[in-house]
Amino acid sequence: MSTIQTQTVEAVVVGAGMVGMTLAHALAGAGIEVAVVDRADPTKFTDAAFDGRTTAIATGSANVLQGIGLWPTLAPKSCPIDTIRVSDGDSLMFMHFDHREVGDDPMGYILENRDIRASLLAAAVASTNIEMIAPARIAAVSRNTVGVSVKFDDGREIRARVIFACDGRGSSMRQAARIPVTEWRYDQSSFVCTIAHERPHQNIAHERFLPGGPFAILPMRDPDTPIDGSAGPLRHAASIVWSESNDLVPAIKGLTDEAFTAELAQRVGGFLGEIALASPRWVHPLGLSHAARYTDQRLALVGDAAHGIHPIAGQGLNMGIRDVAALAEVVVDARRLGRDIGDPDILADYERWRRFDNMLLAVVTDNLLRLFSNDIAPVRVARDLGLGIVNAIPAARKFSMRHAMGVVGDLPRLVRGEAL
Predict the structure, then answer these.
(1) At the fourth CATH level, which superfamily is domain 6-182+287-404?
(2) Considering only CA atoms, which of 294, 287, 280 is closest in space to residue 322?
(3) Contact (Cβ atoms closer than 8 angstroms) between residue 360 and residue 408
(4) Of 298, 38, 24, nearest to 161 (Cα)?
(5) What is the pLDDT of residues 149-187, one digit of tens each?
(6) Shortest CA distance to 311 belongs to which of 335, 337, 284?
(7) Inter-residue contact 108 to 251 (CB < 8 Å)
(8) pTM as predicted
(9) Domain boundaries along the sequence of the chain
C-alpha cells in the first residue's frame, strides 16, 4: 500500500471484484495508470469460503482474458463446454448445442471464481500500472469538469481523470451519483455447490427447467484429489446451480448434507453415477436490476453496478466482461488521440455501445424465467414445442449457439480476439 498522501493516476476503479480487476488490467495493459480501490482485502477473495461459485466464461469473454494476458494462467484450470443440453423437466423435447457445428472453439469454459480472482490479483501485484488500494474506506468523492478526487478516511487522496464504478449491484458510487435503478426480486434463490461424481461429464453443460426454477449442471475440471464414495473414488466434478422457489428455501437450507445430496441426486438423475457433496452450500437471492443510465460526470458504471440478471443463461459476468471490452476500447482509443479520458462524449459512446445489448439480455432472461418457472400444462406444451422447433432448425440453432458464445453483434476488438 502506498504511503504517499496525495497521488495522481489516470483512472480510479472502485471495486476489486472480477469485473473491476479485468477492467484495470485492460487499461493498464494499454499504458493507463489505474488505482483499484476496495474496502475489503482482495487476498480474501481467493478463499473458497468467500466465493465458492463457478462461472461460465463464454468464448468471447475468454478472448478478452486472452487479450489482456490472463488466459494462459486460467486455461489449465478451466473445463471446456463442448455441448449444452437444454431440457424442460422430463419432456422429450430439448435443445442440443454441439460446438462443432460452429467451429473448433468450445461453447465456453467453466472456471471457479476463486481461480479467476487469484489470477487477476497476482497479475495486478506484478503490474507497474496498477495501484491496489485495499482494504481502504472512501470518505468522500468529488467530481467536477476537470477531474475527480477520492479521499480516504485515513487522510490519503487519489486524483484522477475518471472513476469507473465496478462495486456491484448495491453500488455506492451509483447511489452517490443519484442514478435511479429499476430492480425487483424474483421469488427464487439459488443453491450453489460442487459435487463429485462417478462417471465423466463429457464436457456437457445441462440446463433443466423445473417448476421451482432452472437447475444447471456445469462440468468442471477433474479434482486433484478424488472424493471417496460407496462405489469407490469419485474422480469427476460438476458445479450445481439450483434455483428454487423461496417458500421452499428454508426447508432445503435446513437439510443435512446427506438429505441435501439425496435431493440433488433426484434432480441430477443417474447419468453421472454416484454423487457426493464436495463443497459447502451457498444460497443467493435472485433478482434483476438495470440502471437508468450508465454515466454521470466523470463516472461510468460497469458490470453489476449497471445491470444484474438471473443466472438462468449464465451470462452475468460475461455481460460485465463485454462492458469492460467496450469501455476499454473507447477510453484507450481516446487517450491515443490525446483526449481527456473522462470526457462525457467518450463515456456516452460506452453507454450507447452497451446499453441496448444489456437491456435486451435482461428482458430475454426475465421472460425465459417467467415462461419456464411454472407447470401450467398449455404453457409447457407451447414451450416444449418451441424447444423442439429451434433444435430442428440448423440456422436457429447455430445463431443461439453463437449468441451463447458471446460472438454476436457489434463486438469490441478484445471480444473478437484482436489486440486492444
Answers:
(1) FAD/NAD(P)-binding domain (3.50.50.60)
(2) 294
(3) no
(4) 298
(5) 999 999 999 999 999 999 999 999 999 999 999 999 999
(6) 284
(7) no
(8) 0.93
(9) 6-182+287-404
Place of cell 499504458: 31
Strand 295-296 and strand 299-301: the pairing is antiparallel
How many Cα atoms sit within 13 Å of 167 on the Cβ side? 23
Q: Which residues 6+ apart lie within 8 Å of 100 measured at CB?
A: 82
Q: Which amino acid is at 92?
A: L
Model confidence pLDDT, tens digit, residues 181-205: 999 999 999 999 999 999 999 999 9
> 313 is written with which cell numbers?
443463461
